[in-house]
Specification:
The structure is a single chain. With 392 residues, the protein is α/β, with parallel strands linked by helices. It has three domains: 150 residues, Cytidine Deaminase, domain 2; 130 residues, AICAR transformylase, duplication domain (Cytidine Deaminase, domain 2, 3-Layer(aba) Sandwich); 44 residues, Helix Hairpins, CATH 1.10.287. It is 34% helix and 20% strand. It contains 14 helices and 15 strands. The strands form four sheets. Strands 3-8-7-6-4-5 form a six-stranded mixed sheet. α3 packs parallel to α5. The longest helix has 21 residues. The radius of gyration is 21 Å and the shape is globular. The two termini are 28 Å apart. The model has no long low-confidence stretch (mean pLDDT 96).
Length: 392
């Protein structure tokens, strides 16, 4: 297949639309459904991300993409009982394979943003992973292959219209990439930067103790940022992204946005949230939305009289600001990556509030000394990578 006709481009009025190869055949097969323009942008960016995560960590990887940026990314480390509960999989009678764990984590970090995602998997999709995908609202999946059982499960999704793409894992793109904007062709060399253990060797803080888990988490952060619309920062803990701030014009706004997502991820594990008694038959998306309101500033939207009865069997107590801060202070050993240098120490101050212990960023700001001293104040470990990772 040398070309694939799309329903339309980014928007329904943008026709005609297709993907094609100038030379040779497309490295994909559409096994089910019909993929769209944005689906393929998400699929190809997501596939590169998970392929690199697998290479860097040796673990199966998954990502959940929305609008050409990852909502979550993770590798296949084991799930705790609490994580199974907050990701709504504790009721599933499946084998929690490494690939299934990777997708559960990628989807679960920011479930509101992942709603209607496009999934990328580093390994052949197994039955367990397909069963997890089956119950989520999603547009499609790309993987290097599917077991027979997994493919039949996925083909039945969305009344038989779920998009299933198989990609050739050995496909190597041309070293030069091009795109047209306003009738003008842009050309550049592909970003083939390899992120491995040596990437974080230049530690500039007083504390230089970078643990093996921290190296994995920083690699996840930087590889995720490589395929996230810039400006962007990424918080990671325990093998999964827990907060991604994408496409902001200001670095501090990236740090705040991603930090608030990381905080929400941690707050969902608090006794106050785990103890919520939802009404029977409430949908997972409604539970996610309700929790997001409950732990946020608009908590009265779900706690006001006449409203709470729609969501809860028993009216919850207000989760006070003091209680939330006390719980957030228990979050530790978080890794933070940035796709460009931090210009001021305010980014580190905000990161500290979300439990950040390890930082990786290019360095090169005229205020590097201030950023380093702020890290030293909190006994953080910071690596200067010397490499910017803008993506547009």
């Amino acid at each position: 297949m040398q070309e694939y006709e799309l329903k339309y481009g980014c928007n329904p009025n943008q026709k005609p639309s297709r993907i094609y190869m100038q030379d040779g055949e497309l490295p994909i097969k559409v096994l089910n459904g019909r993929a769209g323009y944005i689906n393929f942008l998400d699929a190809f960016n997501g596939w590169q991300l998970v392929k690199e995560l697998k290479k860097a960590t040796g673990l199966p990887a998954a990502t959940s993409f929305k609008h050409v940026s990852p909502a979550g990314a993770a590798v296949g480390q084991p799930l705790s009982d609490v994580e199974k509960q907050i990701y709504w999989v504790s009721d599933m009678d499946i084998e929690f394979t490494p690939l299934a764990n990777a997708y559960i984590r990628a989807r679960g970090a920011d479930r509101m943003s992942s709603f209607g995602d496009f999934i990328s998997l580093s390994d052949v999709c197994d039955k367990s992973t397909a069963l997890v995908i089956k119950r989520e609202v999603s547009d499609g999946v790309i993987a290097p292959g599917y077991t027979d059982e997994a493919l039949e499960i996925l083909k039945a999704k969305k009344n038989g219209n779920y998009c299933v793409i198989e990609i050739d894992p050995d496909y190597v793109p041309a070293p030069i990439e091009r795109k047209d904007v306003f009738g003008i062709t842009f050309e550049q060399g592909r970003n083939e930067l390899v992120i491995d253990d040596d990437f974080f060797s230049n530690i500039v803080t007083d504390n230089k103790e970078l643990t093996e888990q921290a190296k994995i988490d920083l690699a996840i952060a930087m590889i995720t940022l490589k395929y996230t619309q810039s400006n962007s920062v990424c918080y990671v803990k325990g093998g999964q992204a827990i907060g991604i701030g994408a496409g902001q014009q200001s670095r501090i706004h990236c740090t705040r946005l991603a930090g608030s997502k990381a905080d929400n991820w941690w707050l969902r594990q608090s006794p106050q949230v785990l103890g919520l008694q939802f009404v029977d038959n409430i949908k997972r998306a409604d539970r996610d939305n309700t929790i997001d309101l409950y732990i946020g500033e608009d908590y009265m939207d779900v706690l006001a009289e006449g409203e709470w009865q729609k969501f809860f069997k028993v009216k919850p107590e207000v989760f006070t600001a003091e209680e939330k801060r006390a719980w957030l202070d228990k979050n530790t050993d978080v890794a933070l990556g940035s796709d460009a240098f931090f210009p001021f120490g305010d980014n580190i101050e905000r990161a500290h509030k979300s439990g950040v212990k390890y930082v990786a960023q290019p360095g090169g700001s005229v205020r590097d000394d201030h950023v380093i001293s702020t890290c030293n104040k909190y006994d953080m470990v910071m690596s200067f990578t010397g490499i910017r990772l803008f993506h547009h």
